[in-house]
Amino acid sequence: MKQLLFLLLVTMSAQAQEAKLGRLFSSPEQRAQLDAQRYGAPPADKAAPAPPPEPPPPVELNGVVQRSSGHSTIWLNQTPHNDTKGTLRLSNGQQLRLKPGQRYDPASNTIREVTEVQP
After folding, report:
1. Which of 37, 44, 86, 116 has the most neighbouring CB atoms within 10 Å?
2. Quick one: pLDDT band at residue 114, thresholds 50, 70, 90?
3. CA neighbor of 84 nearest in space, from 70, 102, 104, 101
4. Contact criterion met (CB below 8 Å) for 66 and 72
5. What distance in Å separates the CA atoms of residue 30 and residue 15, rounded to the nearest whole number?
6. Quick one: DSSP state of residue 67?
7. H helices present in 22-111, as ranges
8. Residue 78 φ/ψ region, left for φ over 0, alpha for ψ in the -120 to 50 degree band, beta for the rest
């Protein structure tokens, strides 16, 4: 009889403990909520710094026509431009003056002759 009573008490005790214990592991959402309560809200995700903008493509002065009327046409990258002085104004305000057959490379900030071999 004592054994039966002992077995009954152990079984009831185990059932009571299982009911109290509940789930042993929390879901990721619950874990995040617990961590937020314990450590405070996580810092806002800082967006990675934007990569620097790509430099504009090189500009090549292909030719210049100056008329007796004072108007001129220049060809930059094989495209005609009217009434220009052959001076390029960069975004930083710097002005460049190219001669026909020269190319300005914004990536390296250099002026080269078109016939030069690139390193």
Report:
1. 86
2. confident
3. 70
4. yes
5. 25
6. -
7. 28-39
8. left
